[in-house]
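Long-time lurker. I teach an intro course on protein structure, and each term I like to show students one example going from raw sequence to a predicted 3D structure in token notation. This year I'd like something fresh instead of my usual example. Would anyone be willing to generate the tokens for the chain below so I can use it in lecture? Attribution to the forum is fine with me.
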Amino acid sequence: MLVDLTVKEFLGKVAGSDPVPGGGSIAALNGAIASSLAAMVAGLTIGKKGYEEHEELMSYLCTVAQQQQALFVADVDRDSEAYNQVFDCFKLPKSTDEEKAVRSAAIQEATKQAALIPMQVAHRAFELMGIIADVARLGNRNAVTDACVAMMAARSSVLGALMNVRINLGSLKDRAFVEQMQAEADTLETAACAKEKELLDTVNQDLSV
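-- Reply from a regular --
Happy to contribute to a lecture. Here you go:
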């Protein structure tokens, strides 16, 4: 499994000539990184003087962020597996009309799954952005820039996953599915960029000297 590799080994595979792990797995990895940073900032708030009133919330957000991290880590492999399933379908026999029909249907179904998995990643990363915003607003001020990095990583996770959604939509014949997913992707992208900008603008203003 990809997630069992060392950081150097994983990066070596990304830099290699195989198409996986690719952008979808990296989008999921960005989500895992964002979750880890969010958990860190929440953890750095718990037990600190001056933050007592938010301690219960921070404990909850830390737990949720850690749960999200585990899901994103699993998505690193899920995305690569989805690509491999599509690739395997293209290897199916196509000598007869019946084989061609079976192959075509298999490709379409596998491609749908290859679009749905990064869409799930994008939704989860966007939900994480709300957690990060709370951690940045109410958490340890000494770690607010860590929260900002988490927010940027989460936004990259959303946008990267949506790029993988869109490239798969281009191969699908189910127009209703394509239009629904495209509209969903457009809405998510706009919301994610706005949420990131809101936090960064606020923090940059606070940090200006």
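Some talking points for your students: The helical segments are 7-14, 23-45, 55-90, 97-138, 144-169, 175-207. The chain has one domain: 21-200.
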